[in-house]
From TrEMBL:
The keyword Transcription applies. Residues 30-49 bind DNA. PANTHER family: HTH-TYPE TRANSCRIPTIONAL REGULATOR YJDC, TRANSCRIPTIONAL REGULATORY PROTEIN. It comes from the Bacteria. This is TetR/AcrR family transcriptional regulator. Keywords: DNA-binding, Plasmid, Transcription, Transcription regulation. Gene3D superfamilies: Homeodomain-like, Tetracycline Repressor, domain 2. InterPro entries: DNA-bd_HTH_TetR-type_CS (IPR023772), Homeodomain-like_sf (IPR009057), HTH_TetR (IPR001647), Tet_transcr_reg_TetR-rel_C_sf (IPR036271). The keyword Transcription applies. The lineage of its organism: Bacteria, Pseudomonadati, Pseudomonadota, Alphaproteobacteria, Hyphomicrobiales. It comes from Ensifer adhaerens (Sinorhizobium morelense). Residues 7-67 form the HTH tetR-type domain.
Amino acid sequence: MAGRPREFDRDVALKRARDLFWARGFEGVSMTDLVDGLGIASARIYAAFGSKEALFREAIEHYETNEGGFAERAMLENSDVRSVLEVMFRAAVALYTDGLKGCMVVSAATNCTQQNEAIRDWLAEHRKARTQSIIDRLIAGKRSGEIPAHVDEIAIGDCCATLLHGLSVQARDGVEPRRLHAMVDAFLIGFDSMVSAR
């Protein structure tokens, strides 16, 4: 009589899949990699998550709700715009250099084969949404008088997103945290100069 298949913890499996996708990207992870990494048969992976793409999307959602939610937490926990930006960037450096993983949403699928363009476009929408959330916070800062009228809040928001993405790439390349924090310092000096000029 065959024994019943060993039960597995779905949350643990999801985190293991997240780490695989985070390290290698969507196309760099095969079903064989998932079977090996999760320690469960492919049939059970399909039964629990539906498909590799569905598992990837759920892993991204898990990342954004937890580790990758640093920007949203910075906005909730800090009242002034400058503190929001500094806390967001410092948290990004800490996360991106933890094992030199960078940002999962930035690195997971910037280039895809034609059959996976939907994944690439979906991740692009997530990056655009984060950029818009930063711009929205800057707009609120302008309305409250924290940011003077002459400052282009959309350009600043786009610059913030570019810096976040660049920090991710630099971290994956092994640039040490000291240098990444120095980039943040340079941005904040420029930001302070811009908002103090009348």
